[in-house]
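Co-fold these.
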Amino acid sequence: MTIAATATIAPKRRRRLDLNASLVVGLVLTLGFLAVAVVSFVWLPSNPNIPVIKNRMLPPFLPDHWLGTDGLGRDIIAQLMVGARTSILVGAGGASIALFLGTITGLVAAAYGKLADETISRGADIMLSIPGMVTALVLAATMGSGALTTILALSAFFTPSFTRVIRAAAMSVLQEDFITSARLYGRGKLFILARHVIPNIGGVMIVQFTLYFAAGILTEAGLSYLGVGVTRPSISWGMMLNEAQQTVGISSPLAIWPGLAIVFVVLGLNLLGDGLRDVLDPKLKQRRA
Amino acid sequence: MAIYVLRKLAFFLGAVFVASLAIFLLIRAAGGNVAAIVLGKDATAEAINALAHTYGLDRPLPIQYFDWLLNMLHGDLGQSFRTKELVADLVTDRLSISIPLALAGLILGLIIAIPVGTIAARNIGRPSGAFLALVSQIGIAVPVFWAGILLSVLFGVRLGWLPTGGWIDWSESWVGAIRSLVLPVLSLGLIMAAVLIRYVRSAVLDVMNQDYVRTARAVGMTRTQALLNVGLRNAALPIVTIVGLQIAELIGGTVIIEMVFSLPGLSRMILANVAAREVIVVQSTVMLIIVFVIFVNFAVDLLYGILDPRIRNAA
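Predicted complex below.
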């Protein structure tokens, strides 16, 4: 069955090559990103939140300030490093909660009968049709902005996508013969889900998490750019871009670095997710192709 | 077909109902004592109660909710506490900016994505196909507001061809209005294109593997002919669906782009009214946007069912 499913247009050799490149580049970018965040806890070039007026607007490539300073004399590298922490906290936080809730709802929809499935699936459809950005604006405005609000907003928007993907994956596993034999052997539903279904959809879960980690970073940057995401003393790349545009005008190099950081990290996670999908689940790749 | 339409209609109404409830609770539960906030610190208790009474804010929440819903159904979106302006007027004023921006952004995105995605699918496994896929991957990673900032640095600051931001109204000067929209549309369109290329590419790839394309090749069409004459027409269906799903994304992008280029569109109106605690304005405006998005998805579903009998019969 898999032989027929994996026969694609491209010569097989070529595809292997693409897939590995995507995985390797994605892994390198992602590990670099994680390493920066870890290092930021033990070493920073200077305090990213304390203004040093005599150092205002230093150009990049100076020995003390590799990428220069902003309009208040704060080091750019230090801010970017602390910004990486925020991206991880909010992006991975939002994706983790969504993964948790999406796994529960997805599995219930797949395994607990037509009524549960209809209710959960239609609910997910409705939530998917609500524009996240507009709702996040309102949420941030009424609950106050901050990392926690942003994480909650992200997990609310992401959960229905996780529900759908995990439901579909679980349903296809539940049709396998070994599930039937487990059931004939007298295993209960919960046991089957925990012991047989979850390990078999682990790849799907990891891929989905990686892709939504990236989406979370993009959304967080957007919300912080609008001024309704995280606020100082936390630092976000989106917030840095907002400050760059407001205090010194968009023509300064300050508007370059945080944007580049976002692109590299999001690109890295997306490549990693795609690469992992190819390695972990060839069938899924075929469906999404 | 009738059953298909009814099912979709029921879903549309259900989605609107759930969304309205969510918006109402989100805004009201976190809003605090609305009348007190609107009137400010120095207001007397009588004034606060009077305002609350005038707007019915002292009634139980469920009654306020159904009242709001019924009024919306009658076309009454409420009014601002402070300026007494009707929400309907506030919204229509801003739409002359937001709609052209979003629509042109989407169209530009499609104009780029359909040919590029098709070429990327056609050239899969070759360097050019891999290159296009990479460009789209990078484009997806670029935040739309950063694209806006970079474009306005290039064309606004460095080259001085176009304004870096601000708005000249249509009534004042057509040319001015269009000039203020060029860069925002370009930013939005490019980012939309990056996302859409991926979908177009996979839709075309799916189609390329179908038997009818093989048949077309067998009767003597070249790969490109088969793709254009038979493939693209069938790929149109999934592409239409994706456009429907991307509407929410498009509106999110429009919100941010309006801020980047200081366009006084819907999103700035919403943000200003959120800050001013104009709950009725925010509630009704956000609801309008959400109904619009759900409606587009509903319309796309119907269209899909009309175009493809397999879908409506399966339902």
